[in-house]
Fold this sequence. Notes:
The protein has 617 residues and is mainly β. It is built from 3 helices and 45 strands.
Amino acid sequence: MKCKNNLWLIGLIFCATVINAQSISYSAQGVTEGFVGPTEVRYWDASKANNGYTLFGAMGKTYLIDMEGYIVNQWNTVGTNPRLLDSGNILDASTKNPSGFSGFIELDWNGNTVWQYSETRSNYFPHHDWTRIYNKKLNAYTTLYIANKNLTKAQAVAAGANPTTVQDTVVQMDAVVEVDMSGNIVWEWWFFDHVIQDYDATKSNYVGSGKKISDYPGKININLTGVPLRKDWLHCNSIDYNESLDQIVINSVAGEFYIIDHGNTFISGNPSGSIALAATSAGDFLYRFGDPARYGQGNPPSVGTNWTTSTTGNKQIGGAHDVHWIKSGLPGAGNIQIFNNGEYLFERTSQSYIFEVNPYYNSQKVNTGAYVNPPTAGYYTWTYPNNDAMKQNKFISNQVVWIYNSKNDQNFFSTIGGSEQRLANGNTLICSDSQGHLFEVTYGDANTSPQVVWDYISPVTQDGIKSVITDQYPMYNSVFRCYRYTSSHPALAGRTLSKTRTITGKNPQYYKPEDLLAGAEYEFSSTQADYSISQNYPNPFNPSTIIKYQLPVSSNVRISVIDILGKEVAVLVNGFQSAGVHNLNFNPTGFFLSSGIYLYRIEAGTFSKTMKMIYLK
């Protein structure tokens, strides 16, 4: 699509930090989350994007769109956190709230229900995330999901909890549950089975004489500083499964993710034995990342004595989402990606990041082939390259091998939610949940700046479908996650992927790489061979805008500006002009116009047309 109008938000700069053995590079060019702007596709560099089809759910519906935003399939009864399975089916929560639901539903390509599961146990509460896996020991597909599991205050105190810090009568700790296609529970792992404490020496899980919490990185302190026991204690929000390792990773919004062993705690044909084994030390964490102060091996965030500076300490992630392994065959395979929202990091200026972590790196950034405790791998000081961003220098783990963030702190910041996906060409697809902002970035390296190569704003809002988004509270057009699939993906291979319409129904209007160049010409479509006038650019505008028009023959031309009451407030052209393309630079300063919506009208020969523009002072 050649149309390029109405997109005034181009030009904001994103950056990525690429961390190799000894190199760091910054800068990338892209687009932004802003006050007013068009929805759907805003930018596309077809030569650099990993072109395919993007899946996302919004307000209870699921959309599969092409790179221009045309719908190629739609599911109208699900749209919470949808996953496209290899079969072409959609697996999603059974209700619209990702924070809590009763179970799951699987729909085929045409929207027919092919599988359902509901959690019927009264003390389990599924929420946020799940994944369909192939269990090799069962030789069958199963589904893993997160569920808060109740325990009483008495149970918590019996496990060494300080009773004065237990906030709720009923406490909840997350469990990972595995259910087969017949709805049978075949395995379960629970945080409560892996707690340690240094409060009550009479309890069996006491650290022991001469020992500390720091001696038990494989367990979690039931008396976490600043995190009193309550409902939804850890608020885990994402899980993933590594089939080759037969391991699971689960993320807590408080600032850590944990890797646990599935294969060595699963006994085929013996669910009760599997659950019991997972509750032993065999189910302790194999690895944890994010906040070593939680287990006494790092410094917590702190505020400076003058109350104007702060440090993140050794804490790496906060409010994070969508932890997962990069899949085999992709650049960075085996590393772990996570959407680091940047909440609870106590940075002087908050923003979001994408982190890629190699859990096998030691202090020399050498891959050891085995999990290395992050404090053992150590940290380096990230010195932020710009003073005006008001960012403090901070410690970054040597196991972080790639970071993506915006140069301007607030141009990429999702307060909650979000996702990231490594693509086959090395790019990463990112979903900024609270702004409904989907965009794809190149990886970059020490010599090549990362760039935004596709940019999309969801038009699906709490108030219906919108062609233009204005300033709104977060989550107005929320998209929890998004995924990209190429036409060769098993779910799409052989299917007829005919584009129908965009979500708004409007024709795609987006910019291409050449439009980002200074002084670039904004050409009319080749189909325009008569009198014509373009949408002014930029729009909205301040202080000036360009109005481009075409005359097939020399003509008398009059171009005027009209306010919303119909009063003519300016005449920009009034005279004879030669044939060709003309560029009119309109600066309303001399006309003493106030901010608002105006019309501009061309009259040339027998041709007349009126267009709308927005002036922002």
